[in-house]
## 1
Amino acid sequence: MNPFTIFLILIVIVAFLLVVVIMVQNPKGGGLSSSFGGGGTQQLGGVKKTGDFLDKSTWFLATALILLILASNLTIDSGGSAESKALDTEESTSMPAATPSTDNSATPIDTIGS
């Protein structure tokens, strides 16, 4: 398993967690923080203000996602399979080069007007 695949798997996991954390939040003050008694200063399991925890976890996951994406960019293999063949200067075998015609005889279009 190459490093890019590992980063790709981590990116998918972090993106999924970020979606879950964002969906749990409610912009109107409801969400997970109000469902545990409604008090903003209530302590539950040692975590004060569940909304603050969700906000911090959102920022952490977003930062982790950006860093993973940038790190995965460094691990992309720029080997021979990803090179473009459109800029090759070598002679192409699929299509012969066009050569200008040196025939000076009249074409059917030239003979119509005379």
Note: The radius of gyration is 32 Å.
## 2
Amino acid sequence: MGLVLKHVYLTKAGTWHYRRRLPRDVTALVRQNEFKRLLGSTEREALRNCPKVNSEFEGLVMAARRRRDMPADVPHTALDVHRLAERRAAELAATTVHVGDRMLPGSDPEAALLIREAYLSSFPREGGDGLHVEGEPVGVPEIEARALAILTSGGNLSRPAPTIEDARKLYMRERVEGDINEAAKTARLNRVLGYMKDAGVGKDRTMISLTREDARDVRDYLVRDEGMKAATVRRYMNDIRALINLGMTELGLKDAMSNPFLNLSIKGAEASATPAVDERKPIPEAMMRPLRERIVAHAGDDLSRIWRISEWTGCRLGEVTGLLIADVVLDGAVPYLNLVPHAHRRLKTAASIRRVPLIGDALAAAKEAVAAAGSGPALFTRYGRPRGSDAASAALMKHVRAITDDPKIVVHSLRHTVEDRLMLARVDEFDRKLILGHASVGQTGRYGGPDARLKVAERGLKAAMGVAGKRR
């Protein structure tokens, strides 16, 4: 046989055929194991048709993988298309094109043109009805078309400018997906983008084209057309600013633009805002004993232990409800809670990752909880799940309201009570932040090993829990 080409065979009948096994991942997608085509009855015909058929094979593989990676019912942006096309172009560039007795890599300009022509030849051509350029193929999938353009340009085709929709998808992946409040955060983000669209700033707008006028238009729309209060407008504008900031950073636009939603004044927002110190009140010391007694008597074992641990540590309710048995360390010189993020419960900030000493009734409650938890892994099985802290808070609030109807006294007020005790015990600010998991200010927050910090926190808590006399 004079002609020797990879995947080309001469049959006993004297005809030339192209036969090639499909990659394993593609086999399941197209439901066939091999790709077969007749090349012709002569060696000359086989030589002429082989590059086209080889490119048809590569096109079949590329199209199958495109359907897998980007389902037809998922909207995608121009940047999404380009990124997928870059991957397809890289796959094509790594293939081998047989031209006569030559074997050229797909990245070779001559081979790239052959791949393009072979692939496009499988689509019908426009007859000149004005919808397309006469003679050009019609219906070529956009990812394949762009992949071929990238290939034939030698990889020099510029990426499309990122849009607000690109920033939204990025924000979803980085800040929303996997969060215990994913559904609520997704709904809020979609609502914010809906308001932006109504204000004339749609998701297809390029990030770099955003102006200060756009930001004012969105702000004015929320105030004028939606009739929102200034404080509500401020929250939505903060959401937009965070979205744009992340997009600028992760999409490489920090040097090309500034965030037009930054430092945008909202008339009346300052006056309408409630100072953080006034949003919640600590639980008065005189109320603590009857409230604890009610919870211990009526709330059930898990809730009473959660309350007792919170009262003696100042931990957030979600930090306690999300504990695993492994997070409770009882065999050290200083027993403690090891607060780290979990899949079912994230922590509010990086400073929230800490060791909190167990003293007094918190230590007793933790020991009881470990003994009752059995094989675990959650310390509180009923509440150690996504949104478990919400369920615990709702249940505890019924007992809080049985003692007081003050709207500023809630379950979270327990944390404010602990902070008051720390201040009254003259525990310094850094130590208070260490115990409560607030962000530390200045260089001091960087120093100190975990054991030293644990001892400092223990000293502060012991001082605080003696302020109002003996507590049970």
Note: Residues 8-152 form one domain.
